[in-house]
Design a protein that fits this description.
Blueprint (H helix, E strand, L loop, with lengths): L5 H4 L5 H8 L11 E5 H18 L2 E4 L7 H8 L5 E6 L2 H16 L3 E9 L5 H8 L7 E5 L9 H7 L3 E6 L14 H12 L1 H4 L2 E7 L11 H25 L9 E4 L2 H5 L2 H4 L10 H16 L3 E6 L7 H6 L21 E11 L6 E4 L3 H4 L11 E4 L11 E9 L4 E5 L15 E6 L2 H5 L4 E5 L13 E4 L5
Parallel strand pairs: 1-16, 2-9, 3-4, 4-5, 5-6, 6-7, 7-8, 8-9
Antiparallel strand pairs: 1-10, 10-11, 10-15, 11-14, 12-13, 12-15, 13-14, 16-17
């Protein structure tokens, strides 16, 4: 392990210590705020994604940045997959998952870990130290500028094998990546494929794009349209590469596309017989044509997504995928599909204000500060432990204002019934807007399981440790 590994700099309590401290306790009896995961929902969400990819014969590369745990990574990969291909956002995540990845290789599985940002030069040595512990071909990076390539040579010098490269493509999000029409794209490809000085140090594996703009959509149809556009864009980029460099005309390139809304939209294709059709015949045909074109060009489509095991209020606002909860309350996602909540408690009540409000000891440090387009607030208070008559999953309260440690509960703008009565000291569970950001404040998740008998729904059954640092 690298000397500057966050596992050395930021030591956490051991899993055994955490399990001894929490397993068997009720949610009413743990310190707050705390991050709570419903294992049953995570399983359903992961299973639905794997089932869709298998049915449509597309590859899948889950992102681990939302949860940063070994346990959820196992569920994202599944038991039967021969390929253990993942995306990480930090080297710390790779190091945290190393025992699991080594176990997968020992079982004969193909491991490839993609560092999911255009590569900062200072990370290459740590990537190489990680790569030494796995088989050749286990590490990939993103590049979107030709000057990044010179910093990759040290990887082979340390590991003895070349690093794999995905070219990061900009398909409309404009956060990172190159367009296929740009001079930089042609220069980058030529340097990777045809420069004899560099081509022995790295191998091109494929093209990668992230449809972050799919979060702006509000239907499965919109998400699928963006997915199709992504695939078409990357296929044209692959066609250009092979036209300019015929020596790799028959090399299989991986076209890695997605974000949780766009990648999850494929789930509607396998659930079309279960209820109202969220996608029209035009989109079904267009998606299949995309896949056929990719196969005809000796390439493969790979989807990637990250927050789908947990989901959150932002994802519910996209309505991109069908509910994994059966029987579902409708054709799209609902609060029943969100696995991640923040446990907190009421600290004070302000009944004499123009509209009644309450204080919770959970602000931006526990919930994050990312907005959600479907309502003007920072989290929705669930009806957990409040009233069985509130069947929508909502309590009538939302986190209307936040500062660092304070959250102010106000009327839930999407709730039309009477707000539930609150009491000082009452425990609450809040659905966050963005699970990736809200989870970052916590070292571990307290795990419950709604598939257990109802009287055990609030019992902590496990503790999942998140990695820390970068």
């Amino acid at each position: 392990m690298a000397v500057n590994s966050p596992r050395n700099i930021y030591p956490s309590a051991s899993v055994k210590e955490l399990q001894e401290a929490f397993v068997g306790k009720q949610l009413q009896n743990v310190s707050v705020p705390a991050a709570i995961i419903d294992r049953a929902i995570v399983r359903r969400n992961c299973s639905q994604m794997l089932r869709a990819c298998d049915a449509l014969q597309v590859a899948f590369r889950p992102h681990v940045k939302t949860h940063k745990t070994v346990e959820v990574t196992r569920l994202q990969i599944g038991e039967i997959s021969r390929n253990v291909h993942i995306v990480v956002s930090t080297v710390a995540e790779m190091e945290h998952l190393l025992p699991f990845l080594s176990e997968c290789q020992d079982r004969g599985k193909n491991v490839n870990v993609l560092y999911g940002l255009p590569i900062p030069p200072s990370t290459v040595q740590r990537l190489a130290e990680f790569g030494k512990r796995l088989s050749p071909g286990s590490v990939s990076v993103l590049v979107d500028h030709h000057d990044q390539l010179q910093h990759l040579k040290i990887f082979k010098e340390i590991t003895g094998y070349p690093i794999h490269i995905f070219i990061k493509m900009d398909t409309g999000y404009h956060r990172a990546g190159v367009t296929r029409e740009s001079v930089e794209f042609s220069k980058l490809v030529t340097r990777i494929v045809a420069d004899g000085d560099f081509s022995t140090h790295a191998q091109i594996l494929g093209l990668y794009s992230h449809a972050g703009h799919s979060y702006a959509g509000s239907s499965a149809s919109q998400a699928m349209d963006l997915l199709i556009q992504e695939i078409e864009h990357l296929q044209k980029a692959s066609d250009k590469i092979k036209r300019l460099h015929p020596q790799i005309a028959h090399q299989q390139l991986t076209l890695s596309v997605g974000a949780t809304p766009s990648a999850s939209s494929i789930q509607n294709l396998i659930d079309m017989r279960d209820g109202p059709q969220e996608l029209g015949p035009r989109q079904v045909q267009a998606f299949q044509q995309c896949l056929n074109h990719v196969k005809a060009n000796h390439d493969v489509v790979e989807l990637h997504a990250g927050v789908y095991p947990f989901l959150d209020m932002q994802q519910l606002a996209t309505q991109a995928s069908p509910s994994a909860f059966k029987p579902s309350t409708g054709p799209g996602l609902s609060l029943n599909d969100i696995a991640f909540t923040i446990l907190t408690e009421v600290g004070s009540l302000y009944t004499e204000r123009n509209a009644a409000e309450a204080l919770i000891a959970a602000g931006s440090f526990a919930l994050g500060r990312e907005p959600c387009k479907s309502y003007a607030g920072w989290g929705i208070v669930s009806n957990w432990g409040i009233s069985s008559s509130l069947t929508s999953g909502r309590s009538g309260w939302q986190v209307g204002r936040i500062s660092q440690e304070h959250g102010i509960l106000t009327h839930d703008s999407g709730f039309h019934d009477t707000k539930a009565a609150l009491a000082i000291g009452q425990r609450l569970r809040i659905y966050p807007n963005h699970a990736c950001v809200a989870g970052a404040a916590f070292d571990c998740y307290l795990v419950v399981d709604s598939d257990l008998p109802e009287e055990q729904h609030d019992e902590i059954v496990d503790v999942w440790v998140r990695c820390r640092g970068w």
